[in-house]
Amino acid sequence: MSEPRVEQTGWLELSDVERSLAELRGLDAQGSVRATTLNLVVHCGKEDGADATERVLEEIGGSRPLRAIVITPTQGAPRARVSSTCWAGPAHEVCTERIAIRGARAALPSAVTSLLVADLPVFVWWRGELPPEGDAVLGEMIEMATRMVVDSDEAGLDAVARVERLASGLADLGWARTAAWREAIAALFDGRKQRRALDHLIGIDVKGPPSEAALIAGWLRSRLHRQVGLDNTRATRLNRVELLCGDERFLIERSGRYGHGTARGPGLPERTVSLASPATAALLAGELDRLGAERPFGPALEAAA
Amino acid sequence: MTPRADAADNPLRVGLRVGGASEPALFTIFGATGDLAQRKLLPAIYNLAKRGLLPPRFGVIGYARTEMKDEEFRRFAHAAIEAHSRTPVDDRFWPAFASMLHYHAGGFDDNKHFHELANTVNELDHQIGGGAHRVFYLSTPSSFFPVIVNGLGAAKLTRPAELVRVVIEKPFGHDLTSAQQLAEIVHKWFQERQVYRIDHYLGKETVQNIYAFRFANAIFEPIWSNSYVDHVQITVAESLGVEHRAAFYEETGVVRDIVQNHLLGVLALVAMEPPAAFEPESVRDEKAKLLRAMRPMTFDDAVRGQYAGGYVAGEEVPAYRQEPEVPADSITATYIAAKLQIDNWRWAGTPFYIRSGKRLAKRVTEVAVQFKRPPHLPFSREAAEHLEANSLVLRIQPDEGISLRFGAKAPTPTLSIRSVNMDFLYGSSFLTDVPEAYETLLLDAIRGDSTLFTRQDSIERAWEICDPLIEQWQTGQPQLYSAGSWGPDAADELLAEDGRRWRRP
Lengths: 305, 505
Known about the structure:
The structure holds two protein chains of two kinds.
Chain A: E1 5-13, H1 17-26, E2 38-43, H2 47-60, E3 66-74, E4 79-88, E5 93-104, H3 108-115, E6 122-126, H4 136-144, E7 147-150, H5 152-155, H6 157-166, E8 171-172, H7 173-177, H8 179-188, H9 192-198, E9 201-207, H10 210-224, E10 229-233, E11 240-245, E12 248-254, E13 260-265, E14 268-274, H11 280-288, H12 297-304
Parallel strand pairs in A: 2-3, 2-6, 3-5, 6-7, 7-8, 9-10
Antiparallel strand pairs in A: 1-4, 4-5, 9-11, 11-12, 12-13, 13-14
Helix pairs in contact in A: 2-11, 6-12, 10-12
Chain B: E1 25-30, H1 35-50, E2 58-64, H2 70-84, H3 94-98, E3 101-105, H4 111-127, E4 133-138, H5 145-154, E5 164-169, H6 176-189, E6 195-198, H7 205-215, E7 229-237, H8 246-271, H9 280-292, E8 302-312, E9 315-317, E10 335-340, E11 352-357, E12 364-371, E13 391-397, E14 401-409, E15 417-425, H10 426-429, H11 437-447, H12 456-472, E16 479-483, H13 489-496
Parallel strand pairs in B: 1-2, 1-4, 2-3, 4-5, 5-6, 7-11, 8-16
Antiparallel strand pairs in B: 7-12, 8-9, 8-10, 10-11, 12-13, 13-14, 14-15
């Protein structure tokens, strides 16, 4: 994709946001297309989180035309800065709109509500740690969300489990990071002989982030309806999963840096498997395409937490 | 007996979101060194692998006459993919992909080659853990189809039926009789559910979008009938001539090349009844029912054309009869315009006009649904004199998208109503890479989903619709049209007789 064209304003009153966006659209020399398909509200706990969010939104690019509203709690009445980013499409430019809002925490949900594009799904991505139970702002955001997105690697499994009980269709980026590993594990047990070994699964040994290790263990427990032990060696990303099935061992291990690894087990030839570690932008984009949670997630989370 | 794959019963597979194939598979390409394999099949398999959509246990067997080792075939595949893939070759990924590629040299004329192939297939099956689905892709001239199918049968490579599939490229015969003869040979060894007849046109994202447009939106289906639709125009126009395919085209002509397969396939999607489910047999039953309701084409309702010299996009081009290898007295049709009628409750009385040709003004494929005019216009004649009937245009290529034409008040002091277009451009809402049709179709064949493939009864019915016209066009002369135009004048007259005119795409 070519470099996007970015137009941005200074800090504005909320009441000036829509007019400024219209003006930015008017700057398009060749007439761009505003085909918004969803609202994405991003809650950043810290100011530097807003910069990281900007980079993620840049990477999502024009593949999902959206209105992004990035909120950061500070002090005072909410003020906004708007920008429009356009990518060159096959025939026209495709533009997304971004509204950054800073202001008193309690005032932010109502500021967001006034700026949502009508009648389109609202995804709320809560970055970082989740507030304690009963937090009013989190409650209001859950209320307005068609789908909440959190990251158990940042927020912890217990907090995610608490939100999952309140927010239907919760998306967890930590769970999404385990997708290629779950696919590779499932493929180990497609054959009949290996399926019999699965009946004797007693434990797994995972090298990777604790919450992702716990989610894989929870997934296996909930799918197989029995206890599966977990040994975890902490690492910044998933590198290795070993499954102990009685006397037999099945192993999936990352090799090198290029998103691939090997899978092997009794009666199986060693195979190259895809173990992609998608960037946050790719994980988020994948969740924006769906309005509901992956079916095994809830039971896996419950069994993991 | 090959062990059954049981991935469907694997409790760990429940709810996995991966859209690709999961069960182990071996994909054999007959004609692996040919043009189609180089241009489409190998790049499609590479891109599927790159997108993580192939099964974890997967292998490709290239089969052709040329003697080659696995390593040479891998280098051959690398060159083909580098030249034709929509994504560049990733050197870091290549070793993992190349390890899936294997080669088996053999001819088609002796069953011993197929027995040797069976050994290779079984050996690779064992290597990848057993129970692999086996897909045999016939990427050869159609004259080899019978001998390959018989060879596979003789080597017992066609069973078990639940694991083995054969993919056949068009043409599926050259008339009804030859299509039935081919089917007889194929059905001697394969059950119909194992046979995947591929028409890459039907795998295009925008053709598939016709399903979504019609059956995912409640607002169009109620007016999708003879009560509201005046007529439908389907255009498949090419700006190219016959290029290097003159010998093939002389045998084929526009009806066999485009109408019998692509065009009737698209028409069936536009006109069929809603299927109960988006499942292979439900969808294919509805397509077959629609084709059964269509009257065969007749001489009186069709116009035959052949391009004369002219200019296309500013470039001077020769007449068809001046193309290399084309006889100077050829009567082969390079253009057709025809009126098709569907005798069912939904479409009786609403004609479907089709046109297709080579060396037309531009390359475009579109379906235009022309609605009836309002029963009464409460405006003055002057106010609405520029108002045209509503139309809905599904643009399949290029500029993929949908346009709706409706009347709107022009910003003038006196009331004046003009037609305006509301456009939806695919590239505006989805700025992602669109997969090649072959990627979609190959993946479907690997995972055993035949929804987008054509069933034998539809093939035969399509020939029944086309054969009378092909027969009648064996004599007489086609009407000449200038290259770069929209076809012969008689095509305009065909619609003018009904008080209608062609859209200019």
